[in-house]
Fold these 2 entries.
Entry 1:
Amino acid sequence: MAGRVTVAKDIKGERRGQRAERAWRFTSACGSGPCPTVALVRRRTGGIDRLTLSLRSPGHYTGTGMFYAALRCGGHRYNRGESVPFTITVTITGAQIVNGIDIATQVNARYTNRTRKNRTRCVALPGHDAAVYIGLLLTLPPPTTGGASGQSPAGS
């Protein structure tokens, strides 16, 4: 997925307008049509996020997750220095029917982190960030248990 940072307040190494490339993998257990939930595995700098997206309205999925970010404090680096809760919203913007199965071919997505929580004893400014993404999906052969999955062509 090709992305662009839309908000970067007090996030070290991140700035508004910065471009980001991420690999996202969507997995659906439904044989055809819209699924009530879709699994998302998203690679990002420093880790992988795994979350479930729920269908909110036709073509619109939302899910929440959390990861930990490193924080430097008092000359020490705390690998889990701050917790970062986030929301991802995905909108299907392109689809096609293949062998009678409706498959998403293009998506827009939004990542939003409204606040971070300091997990150290040091005083740190609570930052937040957000980004938008767009991507074309590659359709992989369905697993033997049924369903369809796709992965974006871009990655970090």
Entry 2:
Amino acid sequence: MRHLKKLSLIFVFIAAGTFVYSQQNCKVLMPKISGTYIGKCKKGLAHGKGKAVGISTYEGKFRKGLPNGYGIYTSSKGEIFEGNWKKGLRHGKGKFIYNTNNKDSLLVGIWQNDIYIGPKPEKPQIIHEEYIERYTCSRHGEGNRISINIYQNGLQINDTEQIIISESSGIMTKENNMICYENIVFPFVCKFSYLAWNIGRISQHWVIFEFKIKQPGIWRLTSYSYSYSFQ
């Protein structure tokens, strides 16, 4: 029994020593938090959940040695960013607490490649739709511009003569097969429609999509429609 206890203690000490060794040899590739690291490791790099402490501190998810996923970063100045990261950069939803004029300020919204692009986008209001299978709409920063991509059965419609379109404001241009509007006044309302063949090309139906975007910004909207089979 005593022999077994001694073996157990030796195993615990070896395991503890291996753990310390692995942490000391697990690298964090962001210089400001590269100091001590406790957490998961893969191929010598911080990978998974962990905590890194250097001039600044980060606790959260890592991937290949860099913050990646959800995490909390506290700078040497006491600034705090809590949110999503990608390859060591703030990317996605988050909130940033910082000090200005000896007063705490809060910035909440979306970051893209470490740049704040604005508050969380409001979803567009769909006023009317017919034969629209799905759509995507994303905001890409401050401004007053919208790009519209229209797809029918997986193919992009790039001939504006096929489309009847009306808008509440803006100057329409065409760019890389997209319909674009510059100098928009928000809220922006747009309606487009076009004739599409049903399956079998026996008859045609109107595809209609009308939407409203209230939040100013640079927007990209893509709609996908389908051919209808009449019974």
